[in-house]
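Most newcomers find our protein records easier to grasp once they have seen one. Read left to right, the backbone structure tokens trace the chain's path through space. Nothing more is needed to start thinking about how sequence determines fold. An example says more than a description, so a record of this kind follows:
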Amino acid sequence: MTSLIGVDYVSKILHRKQTKPPITPDAAAIRADMAFCRANRWNVIRLPYYWEAMFDNEENFFEEYELILQACKDNGIMCVPEFHHFYATSAWGPKGGGFPKEIVDQYHPATPLNYGADPEVKWFWNDLYLNDIRGVPNIWMQVSDVIEQVIHASRSFRSVIYAFEIFNEPHLWKDEQYELLGLMQTAIAKELRKITWKPIMFARETTHGGYQRRPGLEYQILPRVCRTIYDPHLYHAERIDEQVNRWKAVLAQWRVTNRKVGIFVGEFADQETPGHPTKANTELFVKRWHDEAWDAAYWAYNLVSPDPEQVLATPDNVLTVVGKWYVDAIKKYYV
């Protein structure tokens, strides 16, 4: 298969917060967006969706999803649907999104929210890894049910599905949670494996509250099913050598246990380097993924920020300066 290099595509409907009113799909805009991707040689989209976006808008959610897949098919673009969250949920404040209010309702973080230090936030994530969310039976199977709905909606578009991603950036506060995360991801992946043979993608963990990532424990997060793909993220161009070496080390650990795991860099951007972003660092990322023969998606194409340094294109599909740098780098290193 041709190497995949593309973008994270943020849909207003699939990324809708539960606190916002329902939104109806715009088929013409979706077609224009995917044609724009094709024109810029972006041959894959990672497609984040919030569970909470389904609430009070489920019909529109799946209509939008199928319109996106159809537009991908029409333009020769692969897709990675991805169960997403950002700071867990919008129920705890405007910054977050992901889990619906009904799932987090028995947790009561302080206002204003100090996410990494708040004990209720910590308890929510720990309870999630224990399959013991307050007032919610078998949360692992509820998550798998949501992803299964997305898989079923993909039936007519199997050819454009590259993988299904089961969880974005799970949050950890202590060593023991590495193993618990692996158990959760294995349980969810086994349910999904009953209905699809597409690869199962899983994201690298992030740590909070002063707790530092433990590279030596990361091997434990692997879902124990066949055909898996590891999804690490990177926002520091100056750390690319260090991080790539770490990723290779954990891939080697999995190979020792007869687990051949692929890699897809699901989010990258030069957004946290001092003086960011730069043309040189944007090219550095693209060249490295090309040289490693790794697939990758830039965060993000659209909608995540009004800051033109944070996105590749304006709402009317005009490349930003960073977008031009990215396209130029792709033209330089990819056929």
